[in-house]
Amino acid sequence: MNATPVGSIIVTGIPGSGKTTIARALAERAPLAAHLDIDVIYELVVGGIVFRRNSPAEDWWQLDLAREHVRMLARSFAAYGVLPVVDDVLADRSVLDGYRSTLAPPIRLIVLTPSLEVVMARDAVRHKHVADRWTYLAEPMARELGDVGLWLDTSQLDVEATLAAIERQWSVAEV
What we know:
By secondary structure, the protein is an alpha/beta fold. The protein contains 8 helices and 5 strands. It has one domain: Rossmann fold (3-Layer(aba) Sandwich). Strands 2-3-1-4-5 form a 5-stranded parallel sheet, sandwiched between helices. The longest helix is centred in the middle third of the chain and has 19 residues, at 61-79.
């Protein structure tokens, strides 16, 4: 990415897949970009995270609120020529559709799909350990989103190799 790409980028995958690392690295490679990490946004609610895997639907308002604010931030940054790079777990089509209806086009979706063994190993050496609670999302993510965006098995790739693979297949990522 020599010039600032136009549009928006979404990096997704299950927790522990490397999406925050890759989203941040993509943003750093662009001349002018903002890394919009959904975790940072929903953690702004000081009381902590309300929703959990088995929470009833009414407890998921915090994630919906965070996504709305990520979409607002992304629109605002894009309006000023700053490339928004969204970092979020998209496990169903409706979440992608929400982003598609509001983000600046073209929208590129990058789905990181390392093996579950690699996800668990990566999770074990980072400061937050959450992958084991969310690995079940790999299946609905593949079912709901498997036909869109750039899907990368990053099990054997480091950050630089992942970025190179994304750049080689940049056009495939467009949704």
